[in-house]
Hints:
alpha/beta; 8-stranded parallel beta barrel; 11 helices; about 15% strand
Amino acid sequence: MLSSLKEVIEEGKKRNIAVGAFNTPNLECLLAVLGAAEKLDVPVIISHAQLHESVAPLDKIGPVMVELAKRSSVKVCVHLDHGEDFAYCKKAIALGFTSVMIDYSTKPYEENVEGTREVADFAHARGVDVEAELGRLPNREGGAGGGNERPEDLYTDPELVQDYLRKTGVDALAIAFGTAHGIYKVKPVLNMDVITKVREKTDIPLVMHGGSGISDAEYREVIRRGINKINYYTYMSYAGYAAAKAHAEKEPTGFFHDMALSAQKAMQENAEKTLRVFSNME
Length: 282
């Protein structure tokens, strides 16, 4: 059932679990994620990242996401991930998305605050929840390189949190504490104390970006410390790619839909395994 970000997060809190947020830039990803969530009977967030516009235009994939969310047997938030500008956020809201993230984390603090507040005012007037980011991940969404900064230079400053939330009015806050987007070249070192210090400042839902490639024990620890939403995509997508590649190598000629179905099955298995960890099922 189509639900707000607040509703799925509240459901997660009641169950003492984190809600998984999966980028779903095509039908196979969508069916895989929803299939996994429905099998486990857990709330879920399906997301469209602005950088995937060239893969699946928002005005094409968005209505499909909303319709499948409505038909689902579990609570499903339809979310814009890493919206890069106000206009794109407006477009998602007009299509029926129940949540948008505006990512001005690379901008100076006051510009981040001002731009985020503008989006929040617009979205809230239309019953849509808003996520924003304070602090910055080493790699931008999609795994692109992000300079030579030390990870600690990019961490969320807990002392800014209350001011940021008061001025922006957002409903969820993505924080930076050592994760990165894309496939990790080296094992990340997470500063869990950042989560604890931020959680001491606020009870707002906290979001972990760059969730792929983290150990099960680390997932459980970030959830214990107060993370409510975990973004996940890269390793699920890679599982689909590997399955499609293996299918093509085994059967050099055949139908694309068979290859796509093998990718969908592999992604659903990966999503289910991940949701089990987020939901403390194993």
